[in-house]
Amino acid sequence: MDLKDLYRDVILDHNRRPRNFGALTGADAQADGHNPLCGDRLTVWVRLEGERIADIRFEGKGCAISTASASLMTEAVKGKDKAAIQALYEQVHTLLTHQEATADASLGKLAALAGVSEFPARVKCATLCWHTLNAALERGADAVTTE
Amino acid sequence: MNAVSAVAAPFDVERVRADFPILAQQVNGHPLVYLDSAASGQRPLAVLRAVERYETHYHSNVHRGVHTLSQAATEAFEGARERARRFLNARSTREIVFVRGATEGINLVAQSFARSRFAPGDEILITGLEHHANIVPWQMVCEQSGCTLKVAPIDRRGEVDLGRLLELLTARTRLVAVAHVSNALGTVVPVKRIIEAAHSSGALVLIDGAQAVPHSAVDVRELGCDFYAFSGHKLYGPTGIGVLYGREELLEEMPPWQGGGDMIRTVSFEKSTYNELPWKFEAGTPNISGAVGLAAAMDYLEGLGVEAVAAHEQRLLALATAELERMPGIEIIGTAAHKAAVLSFTLRGCHPHDLGTILDSEGVAIRTGHHCAMPVMTFFDIPATARASFGCYNTEADVRALVAALGKAREVFG
Q: pTM (2 decimals)?
């Protein structure tokens, strides 16, 4: 396992300066995510136009993987509809959990999360934001956890 | 059984390390630096061999058979109870109940002792530094019986505010349940003072000793506590075995908490009568090999000398504390005047979880997270800490490896 593979520059950058960070005013839905194992918490807000995410922001406290993953996710899903987001999440999940998986060009910057697959204990850190987004899209304000 | 390694002063840590085969391995290309003994200690060969000998020579059920193996197993199991009695200096083996660990011991007292006799208006007093195992069982009792849970706060150093504790100790307080040593902060709690105050006020006291027994000789009679619970695996023994000490007159009047084999004297469909102490509280086939291993662990630790081990660990704690205090961005969480060999800290800009991963890549095993003490984390307004904890086998080189690995984390997250 190689630390540089986990903590790539993109990850460290998004951890230090998370994009779309802070509450979204005028949100249609929000959800809280919590990883009880490590104490990571985050909130995701979305504003919808039909099936499409018109705007998304998040806020929370977590490790670098959790924060960077959420930041990258907000950039990646903005403007996409629910079906496209689901497809994207499945690609990301495969990347996070299969060491042999190679990042498809369509993943864009999310490909920086590839190193997580070498660190199974950290997969939940990277998926928390996706579960939380899903909860916001599906169930509105209910909280989700990764446990 | 010759489980004791004679170690001449000064403390010969290299000889101790030779007793722990697990330590001689590479992790992620680096020699293992095991700094997580507060979560679980490693086992010396003396323990492994005692368990192996039991498993290969005389495993059988206890208290049941007239055959030779069963008698040998019973003798070893009850011998382990006598060993634990001596370890705690209890009056009688009737006061030594084998449980799965400190958690089960506390739950036993909560359900068998507190639940049926506490009522609305009664209070259970704990402190702000407790492990979840000494919080949740009491919350359950409060829900079941209508009594109230009170919490004596801690201060910024991680010490129990004794003044506040004494104020909260009133005629309504039925039980004080307090950790001997904080697992998250290392604070050594002045339990003797608390016990004396509680007794003068008419309350009983349970001590959660899980983090104390590896670092100090515990004498329950000298302490005067009513209950004392600890786990074997923090003491270089096996997992799944621990001890609940209870004063005999209290255990005597407590009802069994689980029914089954071994805890009965007679059973009919109309009525069953219960076994005497301590078996009344040990329903079902117990963890025999665990008890055998625990007895060997007690022999081992006392052979090294608990005080000698503690002095060695204190040197490492002092060295690590001094080194970490010098590192920019490090904040030590828990700065009590008296600490056991536990060092909790945070590194600015680097979440403890990231720190744990980076240290692991350097072969350094520490615990990261809330340490099952979420109220402590809330008090310090942090989600988690990194925690290095020291045992009898740690060395100054381990401390240096920790410091070097922290330097690496600062490079990555600089």
A: 0.93
